[in-house]
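Structure (tokenized):
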């Protein structure tokens, strides 16, 4: 019925306009007011002042198709973060018990950590664990160039959380704001545009308005990679009461994540996920999921029914360095890359015997060649000697080129950046000749300290490689012929050359 009325009304309106035009009526006077009304409708739009482009995903009864069911058991490698988060959810899950103990409901939980560590998954798991309505939006969706729109959207999402929960007969709702650093950045930075500050002010007001006596309890969960950008008012007690650090997983955590993502994949009997977990230090949960997916694609490409260890090894290198490149190097360039990588490998073996897993001159993404090191236990503290050894390995490639070709190349740019970062780390940790320094150390003093540290290590590396020049030549020749050498084959080659030299 409403559709027919609407169509008749539109038709009648068009007929009136046509008759007016035929009668010579001038519509130009109405163009500006009509344009302003159209713009206002486009900006504000929809019911309750929400633009149709501002979409909020909800998880409730009959809406499981939008957001898949996730439980805390599906999240691996975050035991400490899950424990802290579950404590914060107690007032939603056991509201009677917490009220008897006089516990004030937590209003906000901030999940902070590197990308891909499972912050969004944890928010979804929290909604399922507490049987809450789940509304999610990105911080960037709240901020627009038009004054008042962002603040209105903040009010609307809180209103929608309450009305949705009441409609579905639920007593709690979780509002998840991803990239909250966009919405909650420190006030006063956007001097030319106060819309950011107005939106944040409204968010603070809405969080302050959460009351324990309300029939629908609301918990705001924010996620960010840059908690340092957030306004202090947002992080004070009574707003975001708890900050949960969602870090990169350790070795045992990576193994748990691998088992979760390998559950629906056929693995060959010889596959050892423990080895993969050990070789993927620094990988996030998203990296590990991608790794197993790439390994499965490799098996499909080769027409096999299961994933083997070679697929996983290839996938590790692909996730770390990208797809193999089909670029064709000139003969001299290829030789230079081979000597460069052998220099790295010899220093790595000299510093830590058995550390080289493989050496290759097959290009991947921007890397013309690389060495991959054997897994080591996760390490969080480094001594001065360990940092100096790492700098030696970084500069060994360029030094090897210089010994063979008489000059270095631009292929060492990445190595120089890494060595510089390590030297800077030494300076600010008080491990350089400068001793303990302030973070406000003048740039020229910092530069001189970094140059001195790296230059000393280059001299040590040059002396060491000069004594192994024949080993470098022989290993590079082998690498040019085979393109890739395993760590065991490389160590065997070095040992044979050493025995030959002694005989």
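Design, position by position:
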């Amino acid at each position: 019925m409403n559709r027919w009325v609407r169509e008749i009304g539109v038709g009648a309106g068009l007929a009136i306009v046509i008759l007016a035009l035929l009668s010579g009526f001038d519509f130009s006077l109405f163009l500006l007011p009509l344009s302003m009304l159209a713009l206002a409708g486009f900006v504000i739009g929809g019911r309750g002042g929400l633009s149709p482009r501002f979409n909020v995903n909800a998880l409730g009864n009959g809406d499981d198709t939008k957001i898949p069911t996730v439980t805390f058991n599906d999240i691996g490698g975050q035991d400490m973060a899950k424990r802290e988060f579950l404590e914060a959810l107690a007032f939603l899950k056991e509201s009677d018990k917490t009220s008897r103990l006089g516990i004030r409901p937590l209003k906000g939980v901030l999940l902070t950590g590197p990308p891909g560590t499972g912050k969004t998954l944890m928010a979804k798991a929290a909604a399922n664990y507490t049987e809450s309505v789940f509304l999610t939006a990105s911080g960037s969706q709240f901020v627009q160039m038009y004054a008042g729109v962002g603040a209105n959207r903040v009010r609307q999402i809180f209103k929608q959380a309450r009305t949705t929960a009441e409609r579905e007969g639920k007593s709690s709702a979780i509002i998840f704001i991803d990239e909250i650093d966009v919405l909650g950045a420190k006030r006063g930075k956007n001097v030319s545009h106060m819309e950011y500050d107005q939106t944040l002010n409204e968010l603070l007001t809405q969080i302050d308005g959460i009351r324990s006596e309300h029939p629908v309890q609301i918990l705001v969960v924010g996620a960010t990679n840059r908690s340092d950008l957030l306004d202090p008012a947002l992080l004070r007690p009574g707003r975001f009461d708890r900050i949960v650090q969602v870090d990169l997983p350790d070795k045992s955590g990576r193994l748990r994540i691998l088992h979760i993502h390998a559950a629906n994949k056929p693995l060959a009997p010889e596959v050892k996920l423990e080895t993969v977990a050990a070789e993927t230090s620094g990988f996030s949960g998203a990296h590990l999921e991608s790794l197993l997916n790439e390994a499965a694609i490799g098996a499909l490409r080769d027409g096999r029914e299961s994933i083997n260890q070679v697929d996983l090894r290839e996938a590790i290198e692909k996730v770390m360095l990208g797809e193999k490149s089909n670029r064709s190097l000139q003969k001299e360039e290829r030789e230079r890359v081979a000597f460069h990588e052998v220099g790295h490998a010899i220093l790595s073996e000299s510093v830590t015997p058995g550390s080289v897993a493989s050496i290759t001159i097959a290009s991947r993404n921007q890397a013309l060649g690389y060495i991959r090191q054997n897994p080591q236990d996760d390490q969080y503290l480094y001594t001065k000697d360990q940092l100096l050894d790492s700098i030696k390995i970084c500069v060994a490639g360029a030094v090897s080129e210089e010994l063979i070709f008489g000059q270095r190349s631009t292929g060492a740019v990445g190595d120089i950046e890494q060595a510089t970062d390590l030297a800077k780390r030494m300076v600010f940790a008080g491990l350089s000749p400068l001793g303990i320094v302030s973070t406000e150390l003048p740039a020229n003093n910092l530069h001189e300290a970094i140059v001195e540290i790296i230059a000393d290590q280059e001299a040590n590396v040059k002396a060491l490689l000069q004594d192994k020049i024949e080993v470098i030549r022989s290993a590079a020749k082998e690498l040019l012929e085979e393109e890739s050498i395993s760590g065991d084959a490389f160590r065997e080659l070095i040992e044979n050359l050493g025995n030959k030299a002694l005989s």
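Reviewer-requested clarification: The two ends are 101 Å apart (CA to CA). The chain has three domains: 46-245, 251-321, 331-502.
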